């Protein structure tokens, strides 16, 4: 029996309310900027009181963290479906590219601008990379279970997150007609593969 089937009405309503608050927060952040979006605005748009907001999130940063984690969770869920016969680096590349292809260039620009709009968010982004690396490593260990592979799986997690960071930087630095982020991510993994 799945988690949704065993979830009670109260838990489902709480999950749905949390999701609604996060979606409203994301939309307002992208439309108005992080600094210009208040907790009161998020609460009002989500149809809750400011006090209720704090029952679900501690701060605006937590709203952003929620949707970052939701995106990462879907990536790890896809990776768990990978056959252990596939190379871990190839599997991570394929899942990351597939995940990032879901976003339009306009969405990526908006999210990138948002995440660079304040010192708090820039710091949060750096923390997120470290958390992402650890979660990726743990996911890899669930697919490739041999204990003797843990060190190499750790390296795959490190270089994969590094490739993603470099791809995002190259994408951000491009001039003229913007190419999709996925192209830069594929190129970063191809460059990594050539050096191995």
TrEMBL record:
InterPro entries: DNA-bd_HTH_TetR-type_CS, Homeodomain-like_sf, HTH-type_TetR-like_transc_reg, HTH_TetR, MftR_C. Residues 38-57 bind DNA. It comes from the Bacteria. The keyword RNA-binding does not apply. Keywords: DNA-binding, Transcription, Transcription regulation. Coiled coil: none annotated. Transmembrane segments: none annotated. Residues 15-75 form the HTH tetR-type domain. It holds the Pfam family TetR_N. This is AcrR family transcriptional regulator. It comes from Luteibacter jiangsuensis.
């Amino acid at each position: 029996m799945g988690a949704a089937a065993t979830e009670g009405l109260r838990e489902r309503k709480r999950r749905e309310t949390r999701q609604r608050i996060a979606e409203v927060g994301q939309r307002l952040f992208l439309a108005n900027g992080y600094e210009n979006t208040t907790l009161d605005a998020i609460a009002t748009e989500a149809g809750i009181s400011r006090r209720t907001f704090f029952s679900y999130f501690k701060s605006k940063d937590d709203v952003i963290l929620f949707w970052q984690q939701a995106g990462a969770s879907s990536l790890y869920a896809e990776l768990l479906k990978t056959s252990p016969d596939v190379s871990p680096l190839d599997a991570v590349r394929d899942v990351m590219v597939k995940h990032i292809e879901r976003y339009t260039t306009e969405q990526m620009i908006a999210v990138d601008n948002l995440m660079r709009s304040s010192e708090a968010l820039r710091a949060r982004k750096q923390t997120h990379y470290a958390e992402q690396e650890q979660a990726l490593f743990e996911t890899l260990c669930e697919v490739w279970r041999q204990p003797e592979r843990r060190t190499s799986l750790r390296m795959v997690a490190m270089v994969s997150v590094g490739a993603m960071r470099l791809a995002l930087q190259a994408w951000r630095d491009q001039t003229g007609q913007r190419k999709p982020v996925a192209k830069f991510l594929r190129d970063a993994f191809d460059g990594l593969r050539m050096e191995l």
